[in-house]
Amino acid sequence: MLYNFLKIIFKLALRVFFKEYKVINKTEIPSDGPLIVVSNHPSTFMDPIIVASLLKQDARFIAKGTLFNSVFKDWAMRNIMKSIPVYRKQDNPGKQLNNDAIFEQCFLFLEGKGTLIIFPEGTSINERKLQDIKTGTARIALGTEARNNFQLGTKILSIGINYSDAPMFRSDVWINVEELIHVSDYKEEYAKNDRQAVRLLTEKIRSNLEKNLIITDDEQEDQFIKNVEVIYKNELVSHFSLDPKLHGFTITKGIEEAVNHFEELDKTWVQNLQQKVADYMLRLKNNKLEDRFLARDKSKEKSVFTDSILRVFFLVLGFPFYIYGLITNIIPYHLSGRIAEEMTNDEEYLGPLKMTAGIFVYSIFYGFLIYLFGHYIAKGEWWWTICFLASLPIAGFFAMLYYQRLQNLKIHWRLISIFYKEPDLMGELFAARKSIIKDLDWAKEQYLSN
């Protein structure tokens, strides 16, 4: 009962925490078992929340044993998170481990048409990488089917989770659901060589996850892909007639694959382009500018001025609503972040802790405001109290929008100021951007022709 209640609450919280929350191929998700759901694991607690929220049915998690290392944690993990502990060598060096009882528990659970959630990397790292896939998932799946002569119908569902910035409030997340793996397809291979069947199924899980993730080799390559997306995304959207809200992952994945392609052909060319892009982005940062404001010709500078006037008009009219949103939301907003930061410095935990703290802090703060409004202002008029309640989150989101527009206006004005006061600098920036676009256009044509 508590699990289902928390799932509803967190479903709503995810929609608030993330600006873009997209699930691709959601219809592939079965509503019953026996089912094993596997996912990558970049954010320790956010990933389980996201995966569980996608499922209609109850599910059990396979979780590392260190999360059960106290009486309270053990109770919470087993009763609230519905988790089954598994003990790993890296957490218990020098100890002889035996997870046979855990495997037996998983077998019985799947035989009862249950749904298991497993993160087969076995560890959580906040990077755009896929760690080695452990064989445990395949062993559980094949072991369950073998006990039932491969007639049970166990399936494996792969889910790729891609965060733009997991700890950041109002960042984006793209969730890609892959076609089901039918474990019965490995019956013949298992009969010939059970270990080979485990390896093949593990490799299939890895393949399904890889195709649904943005994967980079190192931080430098990761930043390069992000920079190319910033500079070239609109060009790709226009060229392929894409909707950026629907095809955001497709665009980024295409850039990642193209970078890998050219690194194999001519790594020096890629490194030179990386440096050119990095230098351009650094100059923008040093001058407090952003690329999106330079993505227009000099001849269109008047439109920048016109946009600035319109933004000023919006800011003047919206100022009273901004103040209202600020007063009613700034305390719980900052308090939620402060609580999370006091609890951890680890980015893997920061995002979900912010979201969880926000659920409680906003509920308490909004409840306090509603009580004051209903008692002292509405004086029992419930309709006015309901309207006040509805206005609180709306005002909060408007305050965020207003602040973003204010920051954009500052950049607009700085752009105009530099345009008139330092025309040589603007000329250099436009020339650098034009050169980068030319290189990327050439790369796009070469890549598409292959």
Summarize the structure.
With 450 residues, the chain is α/β, with parallel strands linked by helices. Helix content is 63%, strand content 9%.
Describe the protein in words.
- The chain has 3 domains: 209 residues, Glycerol-3-phosphate (1)-acyltransferase, CATH 3.40.1130; 68 residues; 137 residues, no CATH class.
- Helix content is 63%, strand content 9%.
- The protein is built from 14 helices and 8 strands.
- The N and C termini lie far apart (55 Å).
Describe the secondary-structure layout.
Elements lengths: L1 H16 L2 E5 L10 E5 L6 H9 L5 E5 L6 H9 L3 E4 L13 H12 L3 E4 L17 H12 L7 E9 L8 E6 L3 E2 L4 H6 L1 H17 L8 H22 L7 H18 L1 H20 L14 H43 L3 H31 L4 H40 L1 H27 L1
Parallel strand pairs: 1-7, 2-5, 2-6, 3-4, 3-5
Antiparallel strand pairs: 6-7, 6-8
How many separate domains?
Answer: 3
The biggest beta sheet reads:
8 strands, mixed
Q: Kindly state the number of beta strands.
A: 8
CATH H-level superfamily title of the largest domain: Glycerol-3-phosphate (1)-acyltransferase
Low-pLDDT sequence parts = 297-302
Sequence of secondary-structure elements: HEEHEHEHEHEEEHHHHHHHHH
Separate helix tally: 14
SSE-based structural type: alpha/beta
Q: Please tell me the overall pLDDT.
A: 89
CATH topology of the largest domain: Glycerol-3-phosphate (1)-acyltransferase
Helical residue percent? 55-70%
Notable traits:
single chain, 450 residues, alpha/beta, Glycerol-3-phosphate (1)-acyltransferase, 3 domains, eight-stranded mixed β-sheet, 14 helices, 8 strands, flat
